[in-house]
Design a protein that fits this description.
The protein is built from 4 helices and 4 strands, in the order H-H-H-H-E-E-E-E. It has helices at about 15-20, 30-40, 45-95, 110-115, and strands at about 130-135, 145-150, 155-165, 175.
């Protein structure tokens, strides 16, 4: 006669974890858990599909939230650095007898700003933002506007997102200096 193996059923996971938690409290529970795992060692196709769907949904939510939080963090970085640049501009104006604000040109802005204002803005590939400073020293009193722009990939001139802060403003605004 042919010997029939007992039909394997999915392991009731709650029971499994409860037995693992109670393992030190119950003598002989360790062998019981091992026997349960040996008997219930396979998953049904439905269980696998449900787990894959749940993991897919959670990863979709996680990736979208990660993108949103990353952009918020980058915006905060730009706002913080703009406030730092404006403060450094005001200090530069007080320390120098010219009475005007320094201005950056369109090449290597972050390095130029770092040199003139004695700052340490990120440079090269580590830089998330490109900073520029515009000054109107002919105005009375002289004014300046600092601008931070996120570059579009492959286009070093056009900004995908920009913030600006004038020396007369308290908080930065979205957009470029006009």
């Amino acid at each position: 006669m042919e010997q029939r193996l007992p039909q394997r059923k999915p392991l009731p996971w709650l029971l499994f974890f409860l037995l693992l938690l109670l393992n030190p409290a119950i003598p002989g529970a360790e062998t019981e858990v091992i026997n349960l795992v040996r008997f219930y060692r396979s998953f049904t196709l439905l269980e696998l599909v449900v787990v894959i769907i749940i993991i897919g949904m959670l990863s979709t939510l996680g990736v979208s939230q990660y993108s949103v939080m990353r952009e918020k963090a980058l915006d905060k970085e730009a706002i913080s650095n703009l406030k730092l640049i404006i403060s450094a501009e005001k200090i530069y104006r007080m320390e120098n007898s010219s009475g005007g604000f320094p201005e950056s040109d369109d090449t290597e802005n972050n390095a130029q700003i770092n040199d003139v204002l004695k700052l340490s803005l990120p440079l090269g590939h580590g830089a998330n933002w490109r900073y520029r400073v515009f000054a109107d020293n002919a105005a009375v009193p002289p004014t300046c506007c600092a601008e931070a722009g996120r570059m579009i990939l492959g286009d070093p001139i056009t900004y995908g997102r920009a913030w600006h802060l004038r020396n007369t403003d308290d908080e930065p605004s979205i957009g470029e200096c006009s």
